[in-house]
Amino acid sequence: MQNELPIIDISDRLAEFSKVKEKASALNTGITAVGADYGHYINNPLSGDKEIYNLRDNLHYRIEASIFHLSLLLQLFDQMEEVIPKLMEEKGDSIDVTRYFNSSQLEINALFDSIIFHLSSMVDYLSLLVYYVSFPRSTEQKMWTQLVSAARDAMNPLSKKNIAKIIIKVDYEMIKKMNDYRADLIHRKANAFLSQFTIKIGTGTTNVFIFASRTILKKYKQKFDSGKDYTITYFIFWLLNELMNKVAEVIYGLKSELETTSYSKKSKNDNSSFKIVFIDQ
């Protein structure tokens, strides 16, 4: 399908992927530091309490799974841009080309949705970590939506903590919209992700464009111009980068929470610290 709107795409997918991997590594370091700080301020790691490390490991897994599925998605694009011109050269504009593209497009859609599911699951594990650190003597667990409700509830002790403002902020700016889209996929639209394609064959080069659906772009309408078409790769890189930024805000909030809690057994003047460094290139 020929597209007349300006196309917003990633010019160098490999370079962008390297940046995302570096950011994920920095975020994982910050999450690991929260576990270490929990042992430092609240609970001796030799006491047998391993829940903080289980939560840390689950967060690591969801982040790495998202990055892995992104790598598979990018490999599919590379493969399509190699295979399609060969098919067209051998068989012309035939049903074989269309069949191959449609099959590859479904695989890309599936990987995109899988990344969304992993990121949403990561947010739930982040919520469990937040509540566990904020209330170490409690056995209660809260998923992200429950955590946001508690942060907004003036009668809930979480709302009295500084991290409550961070939770509400990152939910409004990013996470609620992503989870709403995930809910669409599960409960209302079996194929909420729709896409178009444009194939440009020039001097030995084929560019394949699959566009992010209006369904998900409308969730972030303040970020995306309705007069432009954004490719699925542009959107997923944007989503990963923005979400990791928001998770980093929560991790910093947890750091502060650990340092200022009344039950902290270490001196408030202790010099231990960590920093999540994201370098935009």
Descriptive tags:
281 residues, 4 strands, 5% strand, two-stranded antiparallel sheet, two-stranded parallel sheet, mainly alpha
Tally the helices: what do you get? 7
The domain count comes to: 1
- Mean of pLDDT: 83
β content, as a range? under 5%
Distance between the termini: 34 Å
Shape: elongated
Order of helices and strands: EHHHHHEEHEH
Output the structural class. Answer: mainly alpha
Low confidence ranges: 265-272
Largest sheet: 2 strands, parallel
Please compute the radius of gyration using only Cα atoms. Answer: 22 Å
Q: Compute the number of strand runs.
A: 4
Q: Please state how the strands of the largest beta sheet are arranged side by side.
A: 1-4
Residue share in helix: 55-70%
Topology:
Elements: E1 7-8, H1 13-41, H2 51-91, H3 95-134, H4 144-152, H5 163-188, E2 197-201, E3 206-210, H6 214-217, E4 229-230, H7 232-260
Parallel strand pairs: 1-4
Antiparallel strand pairs: 2-3
Helix pairs in contact: 1-2, 1-7, 2-3, 3-5, 3-7, 4-5, 5-7
Short description:
With 281 residues, the protein is mainly alpha-helical.
Describe the overall structure.
- The chain has 281 residues and is mainly alpha-helical.
- The chain has helices spanning 13-41, 51-91, 95-134, 144-152, 163-188, 214-217, 232-260; strands spanning 7-8, 197-201, 206-210, 229-230.
- The strands form two sheets. It has a two-stranded parallel ribbon. It has a two-stranded antiparallel sheet with strand order 2-3.
- Helix 5 runs antiparallel to helix 7 (232-260).
- The two termini are 34 Å apart.
